[in-house]
Amino acid sequence: MRNKLLVTLLIAVMAVSMLSACGKNDSSGSTSGNGSSGNKVTYDDGFGENVLRITYRAEPESADPACTTADYILMMNCMDTLVKTETNDKNENVTVPWVAKSWEISDDGLTYKFKLRDDVKFHNGEKLTADDVLYTVDRMLQPERAAVNTSWMDVIAGAQDVLDGKAKTVEGKGIIIEDDYNFSIVLADSYAPFLACLSTPAWSLCNREAGEKADEAGGGAATSVYGSDPAYFSASGPFILKEWELNDHVFLETNKDYWAGASDMDGILLKIIPDAQTEKMLFDSGQIDIFDLDHALDQIPTYRDNPDYKDNFVEKTVLGTSYLSLNESIEPLGDVKVRKALQMAIDRDTLIQSMYYGAATPACTFLPEGVPGYDKDSEPIKYDPEGAKKLLEEAGYADGFDLTITQTVDDSQSDQEVNEAIAKMFEAIGVRTKIEQYDNATWYSVRSNGELPMYRTSWIADFNDPDNFLYQMYGSSSNKARSWNYYNTEAIARLEAARHMTDEKARTEEYKALDKLIIRDDAAMIPLWHRVKVRVIQDRVKNFVPMWAGYGDCCYYGTSLG
Question: Helix, strand or coil for residue 380?
Answer without folding.
Answer: coil
